[in-house]
Each structure stands twice: as structure tokens, then as C-alpha cells.
Automatic annotation (TrEMBL):
<dbReference type="GO" id="GO:0000278">
    <property type="term" value="P:mitotic cell cycle"/>
</dbReference>
<keyword id="KW-0963">Cytoplasm</keyword>
<dbReference type="GO" id="GO:0000922">
    <property type="term" value="C:spindle pole"/>
</dbReference>
<dbReference type="InterPro" id="IPR000048">
    <property type="entry name" value="IQ_motif_EF-hand-BS"/>
</dbReference>
<dbReference type="InterPro" id="IPR027417">
    <property type="entry name" value="P-loop_NTPase"/>
</dbReference>
<protein>
    <recommendedName>
        <fullName>Spermatogenesis-associated protein 17</fullName>
    </recommendedName>
</protein>
<dbReference type="GO" id="GO:0005516">
    <property type="term" value="F:calmodulin binding"/>
</dbReference>
<feature type="coiled-coil region">
    <location>
        <begin position="121"/>
        <end position="161"/>
    </location>
</feature>
<keyword id="KW-0112">Calmodulin-binding</keyword>
<keyword id="KW-0175">Coiled coil</keyword>
<keyword id="KW-0677">Repeat</keyword>
<dbReference type="GO" id="GO:0007051">
    <property type="term" value="P:spindle organization"/>
</dbReference>
<dbReference type="GO" id="GO:0051295">
    <property type="term" value="P:establishment of meiotic spindle localization"/>
</dbReference>
<dbReference type="Pfam" id="PF00612">
    <property type="entry name" value="IQ"/>
</dbReference>
<dbReference type="GO" id="GO:0005737">
    <property type="term" value="C:cytoplasm"/>
</dbReference>
<dbReference type="InterPro" id="IPR051185">
    <property type="entry name" value="ASPM"/>
</dbReference>
<feature type="region of interest" description="Disordered">
    <location>
        <begin position="210"/>
        <end position="237"/>
    </location>
</feature>
Length: 356
């Protein structure tokens, strides 16, 4: 009972302490809440960052492993491709050498003849020398003709000038301009003036006076046409006599049909045949490991052999073609010697000491 009385006497003090402590708690609640939130955020951030770091390490390991695998696969594929290309280049080079040897042998044996070619070149040389000699003679004749024409023109001009200066000719009483008394001999112009005749000065034609009254004769001759007037002076102008003479004596200009040789068509055909023989190119791709080339048979050229008749070209001077020598009974064997470069494949790249 005494305890209850004591508590009852302390009610006011307890209320006051309760209100004071509640106020203090309310004042510190915001700070404590912010501190708790900061602690939680820091802890959760550390936890998430650690987890992300773990994920990044695992992802890097996976990517590294996968990229290494794909790079090794790609590298092996490139090595195989390079090896195949190198092998095909070697085979193509060997095929080109074989074709070169065969074409040279074929051309030397069945297409060209050394002695016929030599005779042809000798004849061509002689003909060339003969044509050059004729051309030189023709050029010399043309040069002499040009010099003669030039001299004639100069002489004609000098004569015309002498005719114009004929009044300067010396007389018995007075020497002329070109005949100086201080010279031992007269000038060339003086001698030319003595030879030529002076130019005749033509006076202008006089005008005729027409009568004032002209009789009308149309009634007397109604059915007759009036004749053209008669001109005593020839109508002109006329071309010089030298130009007319050159036109009459000009050389013949043959047409294209006349200038072309009669055997031009045959020569063109022969040239086409020679071009075909010289430019025989096989456009088929060389495949060393295929059997496609064994099925095909040998096909001769169109101009070298025909089932009807032998062409005229090459039968007299060149060697004839024999198919039995060109086409064998057994197919061609595609056997090639190995190259030391190919032996290094599979022994140049290693992985931890193992041969790839």
C-alpha cells in the first residue's frame, strides 16, 4: 500500500519525464533513420558490386575461351585455304609449262617451216630493195621536174620584167641603166632587154555613137528571132595554159576496186588461218584431280584438217599433220612431283608442343 501511495505521489514527475523523453526521441528519430538508411545503402552497394565483379570475371573468362576457340578455328581454315591456293598455283604453273612445251613443239612441227620462211624472207628482201630503188629513181625524176618548172617560171618572170623595162634599153646615142660605160661587159638585164620585145599598150576601146533614130524592123521579120551580138573581143576570163596542160596530163587515180589486188580475199583468208594457228589458247580451267578431261576427245583445228579434203595451205612447204601422233590410246595421267613447301604443312604450327 505504501508503494502504491509512493507511485501515486510521483505521477506528475513520471509524466514530465515521459514527455521529455518522447520529445528527445522524436528529435533524434530523423537522424537515426538517415544513418540507418546510409548504412543499409552502403552495405547493399558493397554486396551488389561484389556480385557484379564476380559476374564480370566469369563473363570475361567465357568470352576469352570462346574467342580463342573461334580464332583458332579461323586460323586453321585460313591455313588450309592458303595451302590449297599455293598448291593450285603450283599445279597451274606446271600446267602452263607443259602447255608451253607442247605448243612450241606443235608449231615447230606442224605449222611453220624454217626453210620456207627463209625463202619467203629472202624474196621479200629482194623485192623491197627493188621497190626502194624504183622509188629513189622516181623521187629523183620528180625533183628534177620541179627544178625545171621552177627555172622556167623564173625565166618567164624575168622575161616579163624585161618587157616591162624595155624602155630602159640603151641606144646608140645614150647607154641605158643596165649598160654602164664603166663596165667591161653589159649587165645580164641589158642582154635580156635586147632579146625580148616590148609590151604592146592597148588603148581603151572607143565608144560607138548610136544613131538617134533606130528603124523598127520587127514588122518586116516577125517570125525570125533576133541573133546575139557579135563580139570581136573573146569572152573571158580564161585559165592559164599551164594549168590546162597540167589538168590534161594529170596521173590516173584508180578507184578502190581497181587498186585492190585480185587475190585480196584469198590473202585475207590465209591471214585469218595464220592468226588462228598462232593464237591457240585453251580457256578451260585446269583441274588436276578431276576426270573431266579424260572423257573429251581431241578436236583438230578447222583449217588444218577436214573430213572432206586437205586444205592447200601448208601441203607443199610445211609438214603434214598426223593425228595418230597427237592422240594416244591411254588417257593422260595426272601425276605430279611433290613440292618441299607442301611437306611443311601440319608441322609449322604447334599448340603446347603438339603438331597441329
Amino acid at each position: 500500500m505504501a508503494r502504491l501511495v509512493k507511485l501515486y505521489s510521483q505521477v506528475d514527475n513520471i509524466k514530465q519525464q515521459y514527455f521529455i523523453r518522447n520529445r528527445i526521441a522524436e528529435e533524434n528519430r530523423q537522424k537515426e533513420n538517415e544513418a540507418a538508411v546510409r548504412i543499409q545503402s552502403w552495405f547493399r552497394g558493397c554486396q551488389v558490386r561484389a556480385y557484379l565483379s564476380h559476374l564480370h570475371k566469369n563473363a570475361t573468362l567465357i568470352q576469352k575461351t570462346w574467342r580463342g576457340f573461334t580464332a583458332r578455328v579461323l586460323f586453321r581454315q585460313r591455313v588450309k585455304t592458303a595451302y590449297f591456293i599455293m598448291k593450285m598455283n603450283f599445279y597451274n604453273k606446271m600446267a602452263v609449262k607443259i602447255q608451253q612445251r607442247w605448243r612450241g613443239y606443235y608449231v615447230r612441227k606442224y605449222v611453220h617451216s624454217y626453210y620456207a620462211r627463209k625463202r619467203y624472207l629472202e624474196g621479200l628482201t629482194r623485192k623491197n630493195a627493188h621497190i626502194r630503188r624504183d622509188l629513189e629513181e622516181f623521187a629523183e625524176l620528180q625533183r628534177k621536174e620541179r627544178e625545171r618548172i621552177t627555172l622556167e617560171k623564173e625565166e618567164q618572170e624575168k622575161n616579163i620584167q624585161a618587157q616591162r623595162f624595155h624602155f630602159l634599153l640603151s641606144t646608140k646615142q645614150r647607154p641605158g641603166v643596165f649598160n654602164s660605160p664603166f663596165r667591161a661587159e653589159p649587165d645580164e638585164m641589158e642582154l635580156r632587154l635586147r632579146k625580148v620585145k616590148p609590151l604592146l599598150v592597148r588603148s581603151a576601146p572607143k565608144e560607138r555613137k548610136t544613131p538617134d533614130i533606130v528603124p523598127d524592123l520587127s514588122n518586116l521579120m516577125p517570125n525570125r528571132e533576133r541573133l546575139p551580138p557579135i563580139h570581136k573581143k573573146p569572152q573571158g576570163p580564161f585559165r592559164p595554159a599551164l594549168e590546162v596542160q597540167q589538168q590534161r596530163q594529170r596521173p590516173l587515180e584508180p578507184s578502190l576496186r581497181v587498186a585492190t589486188s585480185i587475190t585480196a580475199l584469198e590473202e585475207a583468208r590465209e591471214e585469218l588461218k595464220r592468226q588462228e594457228w598462232r593464237t591457240r589458247v585453251i580457256d578451260q580451267t585446269f583441274l588436276p584431280f578431276s576426270n573431266t578431261s579424260r572423257i573429251k576427245r581431241y578436236e583438230g583445228l578447222m583449217h588444218t584438217s577436214t573430213p572432206f579434203e586437205q586444205v592447200a595451205y601448208g601441203t607443199k612447204h610445211f609438214r603434214e599433220e598426223h593425228k595418230e601422233y597427237l592422240q594416244g590410246k591411254k588417257p593422260f595421267k595426272t601425276v605430279f612431283t611433290t613440292c618441299h613447301v607442301f611437306d611443311k604443312f601440319g608441322r609449322m604450327y604447334s599448340n603446347a608442343g603438339n603438331i597441329v
